[in-house]
Amino acid sequence: MSLPILQQEGTPGGAHGAKVSQASAQHAMQLSIAREMFDHKNPVLFTKRAPPGITEDVVRMISKEKNEPDWMLQKRLAGLKAFKAMPLPEWGPHLQLDLDKITYYLRAVEQTNEHKWDNVPDDIKRTFQKLGIPEAEQKALAGAGAQYESEVVYHHLKEEWSRKGVIFENMDVALRKYPELVKKHFMTRCVPITDHKFAALHAAVWSGGTFIYVPPGVSMLVPMQAYFRMNSPGMGQFEHTLIIVDKSASVHYIEGCSAPQYSVNNLHAGCVEIFVYEHATARYSSVENWSKNTFNLNTKRAIVEEAGVVEWVNGNLGSNVTMLYPCSVLKGDRSRADFLGVAFAGPGQNQDTGSKVIHLGKDTSSTITSKSISSGGGITMYRGLLRIAKGASNAKNSTNCDALMMDPQSRSGTIPVIQVSEETADIAHEATVGRISEEQVFYLMTRGLSQEEAVRMIVSGFMEPILRALPMEYAVELNRLIELEMEGSIG
Amino acid sequence: MNLSLNPRLSAQLGRNEPSWLAATRERAVASLSARGRLVFLRSRLGNNFDTLLQGTQAPALPAPALSLQEAVVADNATDNARSSLLKDIRAVLEQDITTHNTLLEPRKAGQVLEANSAIQAWWSAGTVLAVPDGADWATPCIINEPAGISRTVIVFGERSSATVVLRAQGRVRLSRIDVVCKQGSRPRLLLLSSTSEPRLLSMGVRCEDGCMLQLSDIIGSQQSTWSRIETVLEDNVSAQVRQGFIVTGGTAELATDAHHVGRNTRSDLLAKSAVTGKGIARFEGLVRIARDASDADGQQKADFLLLSPDAQANAIPNLVTDNNKVSCAHGATISRLDEETMFYVRSRGISAAQARSLLVHGFFSQVMHGLTEQEHTLASAHLHGMLATLVESHQRSIDPSR
What's the ipTM? Predict the structure, then answer.
């Protein structure tokens, strides 16, 4: 059995920033990933399951099931009201999605002590073992969480970090244990519930997710990870991730997502809110590899205070339609945002992604690097927004979007919107679309590589800036996944 | 008389016209009626359309150009070459410009539809020009666009080579320019406009096999300006578009599209905008490569210079490709005058005011690339006149005591 994320037995853990020896790098390169691993499905088991479709009853049931305070129930109901009132977006990919057939809440197991791996039911444990979660935690992570269907089944933070006051919790637990922190930050000024239709839906039916709080001055050297897994067909997953990085603290959080292949549509409408306070740094990495029946309509946003930094590393593979535009609001002076994104669209897929940056503070800067590959008739579209508000003097941005098209059936495009209301801004945007140059392939083939190897090498080179920003194991995984997706598409 | 959906209006305008032309007006009125209220036109041109309908043909058309009214009735021209060109012009006029562009987002497609339909229904003055097959004109042909709602049709015959200068000054409000560049032609178009009133321009250029287009467009905008230029590239076409926008007030909405539909095509677009005062420049470019348009090369660059604290710039450089045998790139920059360059120029003993003027002129120098000497003289006279006002107003915004 091969493992996707970490399979480096006998080698030192290649944690974020650590140097990895040549030998272990080679070992890692020999990893093989098979799609079956993600497609493996367990029989659907549940102890509580909402009927398909969304009604006030479903929303009240979820809230009651979780024993939530009244203000959260009110928030959910307000979200439901907004969801019903708002129209579907008129722009972007066409969403052939029947929202009445989605199951909005499903609990697979009874509440257990989720801090112990042994308490996780065997079936579910095996799934996560296949995905390599426990190994990863042992070797390279400060903490790990795992969500199965609507509920978090496992959450654990190493003691050295909890002693420093770091909180890494299941979102539902955090709501009970840290009500003040949650009430202040949960879908208030970062992603308001009326932001757009799917944010409103998320507010109504959210369940599970991660809550992270890093106290002032604490610098997390090793990353924390959560893995989200949808198992049953026709299911909607709506996990909420709230990350608060207090003054001068830093954190690196990694998310992985997957689901098995079904013939009915699944919906993922998660929400990520990141608060970066003064002089703090947050790095958020995610590799989303949903099955090709999933609609991935995600909302991710960060508010960055003075001299704070937010870094996004986003990998989008799988899914039927993805609409995801991580947004950074540079509120404080001298704050910074960096976005690195890669999207891969194979047959029948539409990856509509990009990044939004809103410059409000003075001397703020941002960079956006986006790479996309489309193959076998897939569509990749970069859709971005850059806004320099009046008063955000000396703002700087540089945007680079490159698209690679593997065959004549595929489609690619870039739609960057740039709005500048400040004279002192300095903006540069660049984008290219093309295919792999025959000359480059020819050159590599004269060096003894087969055509397929040559193409693979050029694609790896194309992706390099993104892969470099990921921890070693993720970079290898991403690279392998793309190779797997492209198999047979070359030539 | 207000612009309204009154069918009598178009009937009145078309009463002396051949029936096929009057029919185009009727079809356009039908398309406007389907849209209902003319929200877009009203928002851009104000509610009072009185003056708009009183189109006046600019005096003194240069020799080969005809007024549209003359051209459509001159069916029985004796000379064969001339009659075939008139046929081409008639073909352009017969075709509706009111088709819905599905590539644009609904709101923008609606704007284009509304403007084009209004022109097709209510144009009252127009100019046509046909460059005969194989002609090689040494001197530029200068046409002044008529005022009011107008149409201009230009046909470049096969293997012809000519420069046509279209000037829009004064009361030019709502105009449509159709250009057909036939096989192997070398059309050179120079658009020079500077209007103090709100203006809407819709332009379509169709380039047939092997044509090499050079289009230079210099627009001065003091009030709201809306301009949409669409170029269609068939096989082996190469199109170079150079645009300079000087926005001193109001909102200038500028869109330039290159649709690659044939094989082996090349488009190169450069748009430079300087914005001052409370001006807002919105530029939207589109390079679109159709599925069968292999071996396409599409380049697009938009640069903005912000010269006052209240100036705004919005850029949307779109790129949509359906074919992988392409090489496309686009870029956009937004900045103010570079301080280091300013310092360098000043260190050579040049005053701040002069240095600023030099830099602004330098910013636009690329727009003039590729022009012949005669074209250059015309374009630079136009540009420099506008830049003098621009630099002056910029100077004032920095130093109000002047």
Answer: 0.73
